Amino acid sequence: MHTNNERQYYLDWLRIMLILTVFLFHIGMIFNTFGWHIKNEEQFSSLAPVMTFLHLWRMPLLFLISGAGTYYALGKRSDKQYLKERFQRLLIPLIAGIFILVPVQVYIERIGNYDSLFHYYLHMFDGVYPSGNFSWHHLWFIAYLFLISLLITPFLRYFKSKNFRRFKLWIEKQVTRKGGMNLIIIPLLISQLLLKPYFPRETHDIVNDWAFIAFNLTFFLAGFLFFVNSRIIYHVKKQRWIFLVQAILASVVWFVSNYQWNLPFFLNELITITVTWSCSVAVIAYAALGLNKDSLFRKRATEAIYPFYLLHQPVIILFGYYIIQWDVPVLWKAIYVLVFSFTASIGIYWIFIYPFNAMRILFGMKKRKPFLRVSHLLVFKPLR
């Protein structure tokens, strides 16, 4: 699959930083005007444009990074091993999260309807959220990654074929030209023009979300094809100013068009896609330039960030429910929610998940290697 097995550390750093922005985003949901599980009495409409802009490219970039990670995973595993790893890494945490984590946040949202969390569990299967109780909420990202894993399964052998290598060489030639990475805007735009009239809203329910799925699948495949090739990365870094300027200009047009103009559907989609792609490539370029460094913190944080993602939303909602009732300024409420929920998420991970293999499996981690006993280290040889 590839000749360079060296780990791309900047992808780890980006994944860590992006999930931390998801954490901050969900704290912001308490105080903006969007609908959410819990809401502070005083809300700020000024948060909406900034949070919407960040949402445009943050999650697609996570799918792109996941695509690159999948490429490296396939290079080391057989098809059967890859599918087994996807089940362990994605499906088990998804099921565990649906039954352990998500009920906490739905219960708190509807706390007046139930005597206790146990009482809520008795009604967990009463319909599908938002009218009912059953949901996967923030775990939609895990569900969609698992879906994409299943969608690419029939092509696993092709990805290891000579024809695919020839196709990658052709792709490399196209995208290493100046501005050539913008070719991906074409399939992104086609997918939205074809699907968005029928699936206009981002629902995270799979059934009514095929425009959003196609969009993120394209980003996933872009990571799989482009951002594992050292020559393409070299040219992306070399052209970083092009994508930075493109991202800034497209973002200005997006802000103006969304809040001042009423553009036709085609132009609106083209601007939105250009913003999403430009920001993603610019971030990749600068991360590859300055963050491709290893450290013990990177190793620890890379291992912890997945369980942290699974934990963070119910923890935010749990602390936020009580903190928004305090008689303190809004800024202090946000700070308290941030500090308490971050500390609790890390504490839960470190005390209850990290040391125990059963919990590690439930939260998508690899088993810990057992410590060698002292007796195993003593080798006694018979005297001659």
Question: Concise description?
Answer:
This protein is 68% helix and 0% strand. It has 384 residues and is mostly helical. Helix 2 crosses helix 13 (265-290).
Structural features, described:
32% of the residues are buried. By secondary structure, the chain is an all-alpha fold. The protein is globular. It has helices at residues 9-28, 47-76, 79-100, 102-109, 117-121, 140-152, 156-159, 162-175, 185-195, 210-225, 230-238, 240-259, 265-290, 296-323, 330-353, 357-362, 374-377. The chain has a domain at 17-45 and 295-384.
List the helices and strands and how they pair.
Elements: H1 9-28, H2 47-76, H3 79-100, H4 102-109, H5 117-121, H6 140-152, H7 156-159, H8 162-175, H9 185-195, H10 210-225, H11 230-238, H12 240-259, H13 265-290, H14 296-323, H15 330-353, H16 357-362, H17 374-377
Distance linking N and C termini: 52 Å
Task: Decide which structural class fits the backbone.
Answer: mainly alpha
Order of helices and strands: HHHHHHHHHHHHHHHHH
SS summary, helix count: 17
Q: Give the overall shape, derived from the CA principal axes.
A: globular
Question: Helical residue percent?
Answer: 55-70%
Task: Please supply descriptive tags for the structure shown above.
384 residues; mainly alpha; globular
